[in-house]
Amino acid sequence: QYGWMVATLDHTAGTTHCGRFGAQMASVHSTAEDTYIYNSRPAGVTDYALGATGPNPNWSSYTWLDGTANDYSNADTYVTSYNRVLYVQGSNGAWRSNSASAHYPIVCKKGMLPCWYSADTS
Predict the structure, then answer these.
(1) What is the Cα–Cα distance from 111 to 102, expressed in whole angstroms?
(2) How far apart are CA 70 and CA 74, in angstroms?
(3) Rg of the chain in Å (alpha carbons)
(4) Is it the case that residue 57 has pLDDT exceeding 80?
(5) Distance between CA atoms of 67 and 64, rounded to whole angstroms?
(6) pLDDT digits (tens, 9 = 90+) for 59-75
(7) pLDDT of residue 58
(8) Cα–Cα distance between 42 and 65 in angstroms, integer?
(9) Pairwise CA distance, residues 98 & 51, whole Å
(10) Given the DSSP bridges, would you call strands 48-53 and 85-88 parallel, antiparallel or unpaired?
(11) How many CA atoms lie within 13 A of 30 on its CB side?
(12) How many whole angstroms separate alpha carbon 94 and alpha carbon 73?
């Protein structure tokens, strides 16, 4: 499940906001999930933040705040030395980095089942 906060928040406030609902800022693990979130943006939302942080512009060093694997990327070549948080560029859906104090609408995610989960109880 996904939820949007259209008012812009910095990364710390976004994390707190999602936590109020038992959620995390969204992590993304596939092209299908990335496309779904991008296409579900509320009217007027262009750029928006995801729940990843990193110490440098190398995407492989970024981590998802929810602790899930860094197993998918849509990082633009413009993942720069701003090196703190990840946002999605509204014009093309590419991921870029910016300072942790930058303000964006945020998307929260709740209830993702681990990839090994099976509903089969037999």
Answers:
(1) 27
(2) 11
(3) 14
(4) no
(5) 5
(6) 677 889 999 988 998 98
(7) 66
(8) 23
(9) 12
(10) antiparallel
(11) 5
(12) 9
